Amino acid sequence: xxxxxxxxxxxxxxxxxxxxxxxxxxxxxxxxxxxxxxxxxxxxxxxxxxxxxxxxxxxxxxxxxxxxxxxxxxxxxxxxxxxxxxxxxxxxxxxxxxxxxxxxxxxxxxxxxxxxxxxxxxxxxxxxxxxxxxxxxxxxxxxxxxxxxxxxxxxxxxxxxxxxxxxxxxxxxxxxxxxxxxxxxxxxxxxxxxxxxxxxxxxxxxxxxxxxxxxxxxxxxxxxxxxxxxxxxxxxxxxxxxxx
Length: 244
What we know:
Blueprint: E1 7-9, E2 12-15, H1 24-36, H2 39-46, H3 50-63, H4 70-83, H5 88-104, H6 115-124, E3 128-132, H7 137-145, E4 158-160, H8 171-181, E5 188-192, H9 195-203, E6 207-211, E7 227-229, E8 236-239, E9 242-243
Parallel strand pairs: 1-8, 2-3, 2-5, 3-4, 5-6, 6-7
Antiparallel strand pairs: 8-9
Helix pairs in contact: 1-5, 2-4, 3-4, 3-5, 5-7, 8-9
């Protein structure tokens, strides 16, 4: 398939967020510092909350330190942030902090200009939309609820993360999503900027398009032998004889 032939007959589009619908720079420069500054307070004040306690237990397991106190857990979270590690407990705790920040009005999410109009057009045409991001489901929901164009959650049929689907570079994760949605793999189109994720989706039988936006971390690396688009406007979805 050439770069100019980005027409797909599929039932659903599954979206990555960072580098695909939204700028990685916003996440790294705005959201990461916001969460880093609040990890300590969250662990100190709400360590007994079930979701926080589960994440802390996961941090202890991943670090191999079953006795890690709040200070050690916070240090591990900060180190993973520095590495941009997609650790599930990190994403869980970030999701809690970001959700509350969005709800307070401290944060408003970012979408590239071409994304929301295209998502609305696909949704109107009957294409189902899903999100699969390393960010937690809570963070994804907050992201789509608090966009510059208002609440976009009505456009999305489901949200997947590394906890309910699995790691993004493993084909089995994409098989789980296909089974969950009830859509045949060949009828699913995955959009991401990361070649490893695109490879895993294709290995699970999905269709794939690599999204390459100037300035994004994976732009120079490219998307391997996957079809590529610079914006969502370059992608056409055909459904029931119509094109969007």
